[in-house]
Amino acid sequence: MFEAGVLNLVLFLPLLGIALLLALPAGNHDATRRLALIVMLIQFVLTAWLYARFDSRVAGLQFETKLPWIASWGVNYQIGLDGYNILLVLMTAFLGPLVVASAFTAIVKDVKLFYAMVFLIQFAMMGAFVAQDLFLFYVFWETMLIPMFLMIGIWGGERRIYATIKFFLYTAFGSILMLAALIYLVYSLQTTSGVISFAFADLVKARLPLGVQEVLLAAFALSFAIKVPMVPLHTWLPDAHVEAPTAGSVILAGVLLKMGTYGFMKLGFPLFPDATHAFTPVLMTLAVISIVYGACLALVQNDIKKIIAYSSISHLGYVMLGLLSLEITGIQGAVIQMVSHGLVAAGLFLMVGMIYERCHTRELAAYGGLAKLLPVYSVFFMILTLASVGLPTTSGFTGEFLVLLGAFKAAWPLYKLGDSLPLVLAVISVTGVVLGALYMLRFALGFLFGAEKAPHQPLSDLSGREKTILALIVAAVFWLGLFPDGALQKTDLAARAYKQLVTTSRLPGSAP
User: Fold this and answer.
1) 309 pLDDT higher than 60
2) What is the SS3 string spanning 22-36?
3) Domain limits, the chain
């Protein structure tokens, strides 16, 4: 199928970009930047075409490629698009050229190597989303670690070595446990059915005792929860964000954190439904703690990068709440919230990078009165601030509203049956919206409208390149906020399939 070939091209274009970078003469930074931007733009155009071609009326995989890879192990090169990943793949491709363009003036050291790392992490992130074989998914999952480690370690801030080591130790520890769990899962499938396969479609048929499911889910959940990150596994995130270059922070907040929530949605909960029900009270409690605690931490930060970093913990807590609600509304809200956070957080980190290039400080106290000094910058900043708060007509409102609606719809019947915990947690989660308004408006008040601070040098407002980058993000935020129906149609059948998988017992002897 032609579309399947296009999807493979979308996946491997970044590797082609690396090969083209190697062919460029050393020291020609302008040519390097132009090439990187062109490759990323082509990838986005092709991805947008696939998004338009994706049929929301068809359940399951579309544009699938399945080729034998390690046949004796049951490993295949299998990729495809479905309702789980279609929006995330589009978002990843959309942010790619913006990341490249944002680094035009910020990265002046080892430019070719930097863009090679951007290409490599784009390849790995895209691969993790489209992979339909668990072995292939794990390869992409681990590959992401290398370029992000180097991006922080080479182009990061003063404490970059500490941040990279902490990032590596957290993520590597979780990945090792996931590897052990997936090997056991494949072995269990072989012993019970005689089939050796790493394909998601086969692994969800495995029937395991509750105790085994709980151990395996705990291993997967630890790896995914670190990536989200959920409290108390969140402490690596602020350090990584603060020390990463702006492009690294955009990739980290925009896409990389979604690997954790996507992992729960695609793998963790559907593979082990009985264990998921057993763990739901704990996981839902941790999700709500993440919402409130992340917001409280953001409220007291003075480093503007840390404010956005801690806000990510809070916003992604809503994603987990939506997935655990097992309501179609909440599940779809979780997917929209993933995309919305990717756009808004990416935009805010880009704006932090833009002001840092001008003033060379991230301390909130050093800023004030930017609304007069940089009016165009301030307009974009307020739009993204209000999107982060969840103002109606923006993507932030769509995602959070659907998640909360799903959480209350799921909690009310349980409350009438005597189980009050889900309703209590849903009520507490609403405070995250209030706290979000507090920390973001506090941020904006001091940043834009506080006492005017005399800058060390004359400040210039946004350049044409910077305006274009932010205008595209703002357009996407309003598109998802004003016209969410198209995106919701794309994810509807996948949300229903997810609910069916997680609510169907797969204990030994249960009905097929």
Assistant:
1) yes
2) HHCCCCCHHHHHHHH
3) 2-503
Q: What is the DSSP letter of 360?
A: -
Dihedral of the alpha carbons of 74, 79, 85, 90, in degrees to the nearest 10: 160
Model confidence pLDDT, tens digit, residues 88-126: 999 999 999 999 999 988 888 888 999 999 999 999 999
In DSSP notation, 60-112 reads: S-EEEEEEEEEGGGTEEEEEEE-TTTHHHHHHHHHHHHHHHHHTTTT--SSHH
Q: What residue ranges in 319-363 does DSSP mark as E strands? A: none
**Residue 484 contacts by C-beta under 8 Å, 6 or more apart in sequence?**
336, 395, 398
At residue 451, the 3 state secondary structure works out as coil
Contact call for residues 129 and 122 (beta carbons, < 8 A): no
Q: Percentages helix, strand, coil for the chain, rounded to the nearest 5? A: 75, 5, 20
pTM of the model: 0.94
* Mean pLDDT, residues 12-33 taken together: 90
Dihedral (CA of 412, 414, 417, 418) sign = negative
Within 10 A of 511 (CB to CB), how many other CB atoms are there?
Answer: 6
Q: Are strands 62-70 and 75-81 parallel, antiparallel or unpaired?
A: antiparallel
Query: What pLDDT, on a 0 to 100 scale, did the predictor assign at position 80?
Result: 94
Residue 485: Cβ-neighbour burial (10 angstroms; 0-12, 13-18, 19+) = exposed
**Residue range 191-233, pLDDT digits in tens:** 887 788 898 988 988 888 999 999 999 999 999 999 888 988 8
Angle subtended by helix axes 160-193 and 145-155, to nearest 10: 180
For residue 433, give both structure tokens.
Answer: 């919206």
pLDDT at 511 over 90: no
* Residue 412, token pair as written in the block: 């009310």
pLDDT tens, position by position, 241-293: 888 888 888 998 889 889 999 999 999 999 999 999 999 999 999 999 999 99
Rg of the chain (C-alpha set): 22
